[in-house]
Design a protein that fits this description.
single chain; mainly beta; 8-stranded antiparallel beta barrel
Length: 119
Amino acid sequence: MNDVANDKDLLNGRRFVMVSSTASSVDPADPTRFEYEESGGVIWGSYAGDTVVHGHFVGTRDADRIELSYVHLLKNGERAGGQSSSRIETMPGGGLRLVEEFQFAGDDATHVSVCAEIP
């Protein structure tokens, strides 16, 4: 993980797709897609797909750990938001995977999702 720790713009311009989540089933035909921006360890971006019309996140990265706050509009018209903590893993072949533990605001349950980098 030394490359992860030393690269302060590691996630800038990278895109990920959700492959699993304990909060909902993932539609393989239209999974949620995430676009990351990073500058000096500050992270922000957007996401959409599956059950989400439009979402945004902002946070920080320290080495292989990401801390984010997020908010999104669901296709059923409801809004949701919360906090997440992710671990960055390097996949065989060099791509990245994000393993995220997250909680929705007002809910004590912890959910887990996995996102894989896409070209």
